[in-house]
Amino acid sequence: MRWRLTRTALAGLALLAWTTAAAGQSAAARWPGPRTSDGQPDIQGHWEAGPGANNAGHSLEEGCCDAEHNRMQNRAAENIGLRRQIIVEPKNGRIPFQPWAAATRREHLVNLDAPTELQHIEPEDRCSLQGVPRSNLRGPMQILQTPGQVVILYEWVHAFRVIPVDGRPHAPKGSALWQGDARGRWEGNTLVVETTNFRHDPAGYNKQPWIDSHGTFYTDALRVVERWRVVDAGRIDYEATIDDPKVFTQPWTIAYEIVRLRQQAYEFLEEACWEGVSVRRRLDAGRQAVTAGKTRVHSHNEQ
Amino acid sequence: MTRTVLAAAAFIVLAAPAAAQSIPRTADGRPDLSGIWQAINTAGVNILPHHAEPDMPAGLGVVEGNEIPYTPEAAKKQRENYANRAKLDPVNKCFLPGVPRVTYMGFPFQIVQTPNQITMLYEYAHTVRNVFMNSPHPKGPIEWWMGDSRGRWEGDTLVVDVVHFNDQTWFDRAGNHHSEALHVVERYTPIDRDHLNYEVTVEDPKVFTRAWKMSMPLYRRIDRNMQILEYECAAFDEAFREGPAGR
């Protein structure tokens, strides 16, 4: 016990020293923490979106959820809405849809609660990969680093991303991916990741992720640039700029903190989501709702 | 005869140190299994010897002794599985494929090796296995599609002990099956820089009368700019439609 206390105290001192050294330095400053064998700042371990952002995957504009939804999901009572604005650009915190795209998004919001066709079911409810940046908002993630790459594992639907940081070129167009094709580089203490070549399904079947449950979609023109700025051993300031000139009027940016998971020696459990899903039952329920005239635009404002 | 034996002996003497030197190693001297690997055989169709069928090539099988020691009831179930395989094969529903099937389905997989955790990323349905090194299995009962994997090094061999399975996965498209009592031990042994020997010991007292083994080489994908892509099986229309895979 004494040994354990001493070790904890020493680790705490080291962390304090490191944090102090890191504070007040610019992002390009020399990395004060441990490094991997190939010289990357070592950020391995388990992380998750910070408390101000961990419900934003449902809606980047409004967070989650209405009171009923909250109760159904056994969420803490205060876990409603956004406790902090996630969209930092544009300043109004709204997604800058082009008019046609806003109309399509509104259709998604009508169909969300009463799906009658496959493409109405929001991709998360089909246990699909979440893409970028949404994957980073869906529960715990584990970062592994080996020479030339950063690997992010997600507990949700056993998703993963392999991010080469060795300067190799992007995969060729045509090999489109749900998670996109990521290439990263370290700029001082910041991991910059550019992801393109996203899967887009123009036929409307949405064989592609959405950026949130609220129907925020994109096309093959999507390009996401993430900046993972490592602040200290327990915090990464995360920023993602989302650009799709076919859907949005301007690039827009989300920003929030990613924090180290508090639980020690965490091991992912198996998230076999698809194995338990019945899409057919969802569609049957949706068709019954439509037949009964019970459709609405999905919203958090009516109780 | 003597000459052959001598030649074989000389080959072993010469080849063994050469192989040991030519495999990549980590800083702590372990074999470095990092990279993208793939089985090139027809075990995914049938782990036993089989003739060809439409879209399914023939194969010599990968099971030691070419026989799976089923109990009589389990052998009957395999025959039923085979007869109804289009409807019953869990992979036709895009479910997680289990171990060892995930290794030889025909898709590449990437090994990400760190000292305490060796993670395997599979292209099929973005399946992931985390092999935790030198740590005990959690207490059961647990029924996971991919089981719980714990690893250790025996010389240059990565030994992975896998338990806590459900009874839903198969070994191949031919309906070879197991129960939740399945215990799999995998051995990944480097042959040279670009080849691993993959040996699997299978035990399941509810289904087999004794332990049995399969083995096969795994090949490094040395293609320029090779990377793991995606086989988002559950998103294919077929996964939702009427019929055997309908959901």
How do the SSEs of chain A run, as a string of H and E?
HEHEHEEEEEEEEH
Share in β-strands of chain B: 25-35%
The CATH architecture of chain B = Beta Barrel
Q: Flag low-confidence runs of chain B.
A: 9-15, 242-246
Q: Treating each run of at least 4 consecutive H or I residues as one helix, how many helices of chain A?
A: 4
Give the integer mean of the pLDDT values of chain B. Answer: 91
CATH class categorisation of chain B: Mainly Beta
- As for the CATH topology of chain B, it is Lipocalin
Give Rg of chain B in angstroms.
Answer: 19 Å
- The secondary-structure element order of chain B is HEHHEEEEEEEE
Structural class based on helices, strands and sheet pairing of chain A? alpha+beta
Distance between the termini of chain B: 62 Å
Estimate nothing, just give the exact number of structural domains of chain A. 1
Largest sheet of chain A: 10 strands, antiparallel
The largest beta-sheet of chain B arranges its strands as 1-2-3-4-5-6-7-8-9
What kind of oligomer do you see?
heterodimer
CATH superfamily of chain B: Calycin beta-barrel core domain
Characterization of the model:
The complex is a heterodimer of chains A (303) and B (247). Helix content of chain A is 17%, strand content 22%. Chain A is of the alpha+beta class and 303 residues long. Chain A has one domain. In chain A, a hairpin with an 8-residue loop joins strand 9 and strand 10. Chain A is globular. Residues 1-28 of chain A have low confidence and may be disordered. Helix content of chain B is 15%, strand content 26%. Chain B has three helices and nine strands; from the N terminus they run H-E-H-H-E-E-E-E-E-E-E-E. A nine-stranded mixed beta barrel of chain B has the order 1-2-3-4-5-6-7-8-9. The radius of gyration of chain B is 19 Å and the shape is globular. Residues 9-15 and 242-246 of chain B have low confidence and may be disordered.
